[in-house]
């Protein structure tokens, strides 16, 4: 709270300073008198949304098009752009406040997952939101690990079924079939965050990783320093038995 309060103070000072500059017009307007709360147009949309004092002002600087997010528009969300995770096993596209600024202060976010045959949405955590997870094509086998002392939860989520991944839990999903699966995930916050467990854990030094598990960790004959960069990006290809069943060559 301290952080956002001081950020807001700094941002307000900046807004007042910039708004006084000649030739700075509200976004989408050619007339400074048309807005009750002028916002400097030379700032990014997200910065403008943070600066204005009310929700009404926020919607006044958002165009109708700013309120539309097309998950299926690959030109708007190319591979490698923020909010897009692409691996050998599929793709995730996430609308949060950084990729869809209209979500700022709306207390929600959403992701769509396109999981190929055997595709594996690798173990991860959302540090700042609960997740509702609905499968709308195919089925996905889900596992959740709660906090220390909590239990493991397993569910096969079929088409048009839904499950919950609590905030901070480690969870994963896996397509056990040779046909694609798709899901929609909604979050109880506009900045849910995402931390991939393997990348984070094996990002520690080899000595630390080995000490944490009580012995040297080897993958395909490589030590931690050797395999760290080879951890597959999400969405990964999936388990060996499924790849064999579906005749998918491991890349
Ligand atoms: C995908 O997005 C475009 C806009 O980018 C839209 O016109 C179209 O209807 C959408 N749906 C499909 C299935 O392509
Ligand atoms: C789904 O996951 C559970 C628990 O991990 C496992 O026992 C089961 O065999 C899996 N089912 C399929 C079809 O992969």
TrEMBL record:
SMART domains: Cupin_1. Residues 77-210 form the Cupin type-1 domain. GO terms for cellular component: extracellular region. SUPFAM superfamilies: RmlC-like cupins. InterPro entries: Cupin_1 (IPR006045), Germin (IPR001929), Germin_Mn-BS (IPR019780), RmlC-like_jellyroll (IPR014710), RmlC_Cupin_sf (IPR011051). Residues 1-19 form the signal peptide. It comes from the Eukaryota. Its main location: secreted. One of its GO terms (molecular function) is manganese ion binding. Keywords: Manganese, Metal-binding, Secreted, Signal. It is found in: Secreted. It holds the Pfam family Cupin_1. Belongs to the germin family. This is RmlC-like cupin. It comes from Mollisia scopiformis (Conifer needle endophyte fungus).
